Amino acid sequence: MQIDREQSGNREQTENGNQQRIWQDTPYPGVCFYGLSESLESGRTALLKFDAGARLPAHAHPGWEQLLILEGQFRVNHQCCHPRDYVFLPAGETHEVEAITAGIYLTIAEKAGVKISKEAEI
């Protein structure tokens, strides 16, 4: 078992010695990203944090994607999801995500990469 508490400089010390995540902005307003792992062999695992009303446009991944809602409420392809809900998206399935309330979910993607749908391009 591996526990990684200081991953790629994505954490900082707080006054009491606890470590805190440093979220990275994405191109989408109100959506932040915290990478946990990424490789060609094992894909990508990350946390995504949304402000209420923030959204990811329609997109697809080259491999399957799994979501586990940790906090808040999300709409994934018009389906309402709550904490502890699990979503499985097959490879190539176009989907969009919108935060109904502020929240965080864990994403595990079989393969790195994403293709934004032409209709959703800004």
UniProtKB/TrEMBL annotation:
Organism: Vibrio quintilis
Transmembrane segments: none
Regions of compositional bias (Basic and acidic residues) in chain numbering: 1-14
ChrR-like cupin domain segment(s): 20-107
Protein name (Swiss-Prot/TrEMBL): ChrR Cupin-like domain protein
Disordered: annotated segments: 1-25
Lineage per the UniProt record: Bacteria, Pseudomonadati, Pseudomonadota, Gammaproteobacteria, Vibrionales
Superkingdom assignment: Bacteria
